[in-house]
Amino acid sequence: MSPGFDLRLAPTAVAVWAVTLIGLLAGWLAAAVAAVLALLAMPLVWPASRNRAWGRAMLVVLVLAGVAATGMAVRGHRAEHHPVRQAAHHGERLTARVTLTSAPIPLRGPSFGAQRAQDRALVRAALETADVAGRHVRAGGSVVLLVPTDQWRDLIAGQSVTVRGKAAPPRSGELTIAALQVFGAPTDVGAPPGWQRTAADLREGLRRTAAAELSPAAAGLLPGLVIGDTGALPPEVAQDFETAGLTHLMAVSGANLAIVCGAVLLVLHLIGAGPVLSVLGAGAALVGFVVLAGPEPSVLRAAAMGAVTLLALVLGRRRSALPVLSASVIGLLLLLPELATSAGFALSVAATAGLVVLAPAWAAVLRDRGVPIGAAEAIAVPLAAHVVTAPLVAALSGTVSLVAVPANLLAGPVVAPATVLGVLATVIAPLSGWLAGASCWLAAPELEWLAVVADRAAAVPGGSFEWLPGTAGGLLLAAVVVIGLFMLRGKRFRVLAAVALLVVVLLLVPVRSAVSGWPVPGWSMVACDVGQGDGLVLATGRPEEAVVVDTGPDLERSAACLERLGVRRIPLAVLTHLHADHVSGLAGLLGRFPVGAVAVGPLREPAWAMREVVRDAMAHRVPVVPMQAGQRASWPGLVLDVLAPDPALARTQTAEDANDASIVVLATTSAGRVLLTGDIELPAQGELVASGLELRADVLKVPHHGSRYTTPRFLHAVRPRTALISVGDGNSYGHPSPFVVDLLTRAGAKVLRTDQEGDIAILPGPDGPRHVSRGNPLRAVDR
């Protein structure tokens, strides 16, 4: 046990977490084995537990780990052998009566093939009864519903509904019985509990008042700060917060609850309330906040972490904070075992540990060196939270942020007043719209400051750098952090660390891109590594200007690629078709670059995707223009000839034909002819070959990420020297097809994949196009 901290429950929390992970990831049988082993080990430890502290601690570890393992074995066995799970393994259709445990959450990003799932929402529910193949099943358990957003958006947690859908197995690492794909509206909709309806009305009141009183960015931020609702947040602002390391501000966390409960305690203290009344008041505020945000796992987690934070930072009981944190972890994992695989849970626990262990000590050190109390805590709190969570963030994202600490330092002072004013607006909106609007108006300067901090921090060159992703990367950075903290205890090492930090900030970061060999001078085209999607850039021959063809599946990667290339203006952004892996990054580009126009094909399906493109373009006053076969656009160093689609054919197509309705462009560049094909499949490829158009190209962007739906006849008509495949590493679609790669290779084409090469630049060469890969930037390959 370390001086000043009681660590006796920490090993128990770790053990409970470990056996819960075993049950979730390895199955109920592995959890049963762990329970048996814990039971067998108890007699061995029992003699030592009578008179030795370590023996008693070990016994507690074994007992609680055994309880957790037994619970996981029972739950896992019940879920695995549930009749609905068996139906899910066979893809059967069923009718079920369920009670919603969450409101519908619109899905984001690619899903359901290559289409964006924005018109689909996820709902968690408790199963009451089900009819499976004529059999009536009455049994509990949780299910996940994938539902149409428009038909379900008005439902809230607590309502009972009847649904009919197709059962599918759940994701690994969950105790969910099944996932139900529902394509219709719910029937027999029951009324929610009164308190759930009241909470939903309060949340809607906050959204409505914020939208009426604040700018779009501030109106999206306020519900995020108060209840974690980021539905109205502009995509570019959300991306700035992620890049700047400020995303945690927009999630319901222990910090939210600590702020609200702390404000209540302060008010009660000012009016002279005693300790008992103060505790009751803070407890009531905590319960009320949980009801307002919704008693979902993430909110319950936040409530537990917020209580621990209050204990440590408000009541000043540092020694008891770690046992309470450990007990909270144990209790939450026993109650909600699926939290064991939640990144948010791990980050919350780590951040809370940093706040109760490191922040007070670091604040005290700063105060001893003459730093004012408020400034010392403002520095110590975000620094401690960032240091302890950095390994987890690196493992999840593969990046380490250099701007997160200063961004949090600048943002920290305004978070509490903005949150408190947001809560006041929420509570008083049903009573007085004027007073609620006034609260939002008072919060406006703080919210605008947060948006400015995020924007400026995200724009810092070299503000983050790549790190080894996954468990290995997280452990490596954790080791670096531990060694660094140990070394900083010595004055000499602190001086060296300060010098090293100055060198990194003033020298290494600014010149990193200059010495990396990227961007390579004279590039004609770049296939950006945007993951499982397309993001292509064509030089126009004018400095700092490029045409973009497709924008990838997320807000950041395509925009980051353009920034690395030094692009400052986009005269035209072409969206080959309206699937997520081609259009989801558009808002990120519109928020960072001047865009002349956005071009779309004649098929405006899916309709919801088209609405979103138009909305984002209008928000930045960018026109949306049609593009179809026969059109030409030219710049000094680039000519685009549109080969497809034929608008007459597009009029007979539906959303299911979006791939074959892709815009196909033949680009004439300084490196030769480049054929860009979107996601066209067998029918559209056949029509192009039969059209008699000259398809011969030096470079081919292989259709549909190299899928099997590519004909040898089409590839033979193109006969490319270089074949680019834009594809995500480890994607679940099996892209690219080995058959297609083999066809191209045997035909003499150099096959280049973004999942292997990173960003790929095409340049003119003496004997045809050559390429330089950012993954290996010092080696250029001539053809």
Automatic annotation (TrEMBL):
This protein's species is Saccharopolyspora kobensis
From the broadest rank down, the organism's phylogenetic lineage runs:
Bacteria, Bacillati, Actinomycetota, Actinomycetes, Pseudonocardiales
User: In the UniProt record, does the keyword Protein biosynthesis occur?
Assistant: no
Q: Which UniProt keywords apply?
A: Cell membrane, Membrane, Transmembrane, Transmembrane helix
Give the start-end ranges of region Disordered.
Answer: 762-783
- Which residues belong to any copy of the Metallo-beta-lactamase domain? 532-729
Segments spanning the bilayer are: 15-41, 53-74, 249-268, 275-293, 299-315, 345-366, 378-405, 467-488, 495-515
Q: What name is this protein filed under?
A: Competence protein ComEC
Top-rank lineage group of the source organism: Bacteria
